[in-house]
Amino acid sequence: MRRIILILLSVLPMLVLAKGNKDNRLIVITIDGLRWQEVFQGAEENILTDSKQVRDVKQCRETYWRATPEERREALMPFTWSTIAKKGLLIGNRNVNSIMHLANKTNISYPGYSEMMTGMADEAITSNNPVNNPHRNVLEAANEDPRYKGEVIMYGSWKSTRFAIHNEQAGIPASVSYEPNIAKKQTPQLKLVDRMLEGMPRYWQSEHFDAFTFAYALEALKNDHPKVMWISFGDCDEWAHARKYDLYLDAAKGTDAFIRDIYEACESDKFYKGKTTYLITCDHGRGFGNEWGSHGSSTKGSEATWIMLLGKGIDALGETKECGPFQTQQIAATIASILGIDFTPDSGIKLLPIEVK
Hey, which residues does 153 pair with through a beta bridge? Predict the structure, then answer.
């Protein structure tokens, strides 16, 4: 199998992927603010047993506590560790020196998504405000390619995500927060989800629950068959900011189940089966210990990120060790490589794919 290694100016570390061709599909899934600690170690005992941050410590412990980190992470994210870890690869477990981090210094969401999609860390982008990103992004480049034109869409929970890719300028249909769904085929199931979203109390003013994002995205995949989709989940970050560790864990487990359902639906559909790469990552990390709910430039550890890759063109390397540091800004080049498109960030600093035989 021919493979490529992504580098930045020959000094950043290498990520092994198979070369894209003319008939690729890509699903990018982001989980806002999910720490590498829970992904790779499962629930953290000192937080799990804090009654101020967990409503029912006994029940939560029964659900998520196990003797070893390996058992705890499997209890929390069973699809990740039963399937992705066996058929794909994971980067970001700092306990085994697998390192990935942000290039931007803000360690908050909008700059993280911007870095991820534009392939650069613009230090002038420092807030989460829903304003259009001035930079061209890799999904925009995909939508300009004849193979993917009109086949790139986005569903997200949080309002600001679509602004991070300036979706109107990019020509990418996107639905976030309490906006109408943008599916081409308006099925009865979608109309029901619309009605449910309309009738739900708006617990967060700029963000709906991830269950709605999942329902919209799954219906669009089944009926519209876009070639490229970005699905942006946000519950983990919201519950972490609220210091509700049990709900944060529940959200992580729920998102893992959503990813499983998306993967299984696609791999049972001839349009996607054997043609799809799944890229799963986060926009920022969180602090250590008592600072687990926080992130930002002053919160140590919140620069730490992670990535999982599964599907077409991805070698079954499992949990990587002794690699990195990778940067989140390399994700844009990774997407470009998977889709077989050319993309140069506005910075002019391009992530170069190098073929390895």
Answer: 229
To the nearest whole percent, how much of the chain has pLDDT over 70?
Answer: 92
pLDDT in tens, 263-319: 999 999 999 999 999 999 999 999 999 999 999 999 999 999 999 999 999 999 999
Output DSSP code: residue 81: I
Locate the DSSP E strands across the chain: 3-8, 16-18, 25-31, 89-91, 98-101, 152-156, 174-176, 228-233, 276-281, 307-311, 318-319, 323-327, 351-356
User: 270, exposed or middle or buried, with CB in 10 Å at 0-12, 13-18, 19+?
Assistant: exposed
Closest CA to 49 of 300, 239, 249: 249
Determine the 3-state secondary structure of 101 from DSSP.
Answer: strand
11 pLDDT higher than 70: no
Decide: 63 and 291 in contact? Cβ < 8 Å.
Answer: no
Task: Find residue 89's DSSP bridge partners.
Answer: 309, 318
For 310-327, give one letter per residue: b (16+ CB within 10 A) or e.
bbbbbeeeebbeebbebb
pLDDT per position as a tens digit, 190-240: 999 999 999 999 999 999 999 999 999 999 999 999 999 999 999 999 999
Cis-peptide, bond into residue 146, ω within 30° of zero = no
DSSP structure class, residue 316: -
Residue type, position 280, single letter = I
- C-beta separation of 258 from 233 below 8 A: yes
- List 326's β-bridge partners, or say none: 100
